[in-house]
Amino acid sequence: MLFELIRLEFIKSFRSTAFAKSVMVAIFLGFLAIMFLSYLLMAGLFLNRILEVLAEGENTIEVLNSGLIFFFLVDFMYRYFLQKLPVIELESLLHLPISKHKIMHMLLGRSFFSPLSIIALILFTPFAFTVIGQEYGIQGAISWLGTVVFISWTLHWFMLWFKQRFEDGLIGVGIVFAILLLGGGSTYMGWFNLGEIVAPFFRFAMSSSIPLLATLVLCGAGYYMAFSYYLNNAYLEDLSDEEEVRFVNQSVGFFSRFGMAGELANLEWKLIIRHKKSRTFLMLSAFFLLYGTIFYDNPAYQDGPMQHMFIFVGIFITGIFTIQYGQLFLSWNSSYFDFFLTRKDGIKNLVKGKYLLLLSISVLCFLLSIPYVYYGWKFLLIHFATFLFNAGIMIHVITYLAIWKPKPMDLNKGAMFNYEGVGAAQFLMIIPMMVAPYLIYLPFALFFNMYAGLAALGTAGVIGILFFNKLATININRVLKNRFEISSSFRQEL
């Protein structure tokens, strides 16, 4: 029966009308995966030498044992954002006269065959047999490597349960942030070194098989937990209710004060929290609010020309949602764009509603960035000036580029490695993001000081806000002028 299910999957792929496109995408992603895994293999081959350079004079085995916990934290993070859930095909399988146990085993087993599952194996196998094997023997190398790999595989099964259980909700995001904060943040802030706490476990794995057996049992328990949850919740009505009814009544009250544009902004908000791709962008925006911690406390950026890098960081933090969500300005509405064409002022209200939503979340991002004042008052001024510039200037620049030949996309697909809706304009947006703020900031900062540059940047933003309607009209007229061409491109098959 397992082979029959596999055969059905192959038949479904070959009969798909988008088979040729799927093959090309698969070849491209396969090439990227092979290239990435090749880099990992090279890193694994030179891992001992890399550790010798980074921790000169220290035992590389001890250094790696102390750092493994941070590898697993990174493993946890990229699995959260990249790992796909094996539930997409359930609707096409549950009605068949096949045991749900067999369907779940097949779907879970297929999810395991992924480049993510062999990262730990490729990265640490050379080190295990060339370094650990010389000191602890082949048995010690196998025990240590097996322990590391089984922990990584346990994270695979745990993430399948975790993502399905919390459905990318705020609770799930909060747990991810808490784990990353307690893991990496505790060491960075000097609270406690988590690596030194767990290092004895991996040290013990080199001289005993007990950790290997324990992690093997843990991996099996993780599989059973994921299997049980999927089996108990594999019902078509549950799937449809979760996608269609969830968050249906979640509205933002003050949007209603802005007329029809506000109502459309409210609908856009519902679109964001209902669909996987847009919801992922919202969560990534919250995650990238921590971007400043990389730069603001780094001595290399405190003085000299490098301190001007803070302007880009401020633009990124206060405008991250506008950058991510706004770059696909009209593509989000590709499936029902024709609806707005048939309504009086439909396009005008759609564009204004999007502006209202982007500005509202930018205000929220600025307010959430206020705690950066902990690093100094100048960072609050940087965020305020860059927020004004984003609200007055950058939002129009990003929108102008985004409505240049927009492409359709499917909202129900994930955001990672999904290039639907992405065209040349999306790749070119990094240029105005990097150049535009510095064209105004640098002349004043170099001739006077940083605060003069911030004042100029904020003043430009205020001017843009005062003339907001006129600037928005430019983009509205562009959409109206090309509305039929845009509508025709949205009707193309994905």
UniProtKB/TrEMBL annotation:
Keywords: Membrane, Transmembrane, Transmembrane helix. The chain crosses the membrane at residues 21-43, 63-82, 103-129, 141-162, 169-190, 210-231, 280-296, 308-334, 355-374, 380-404, 416-440, 446-468. The keyword Membrane applies. The keyword Transmembrane applies. It comes from the Bacteria. This is ABC-2 type transport system permease protein. It comes from Algoriphagus ratkowskyi.
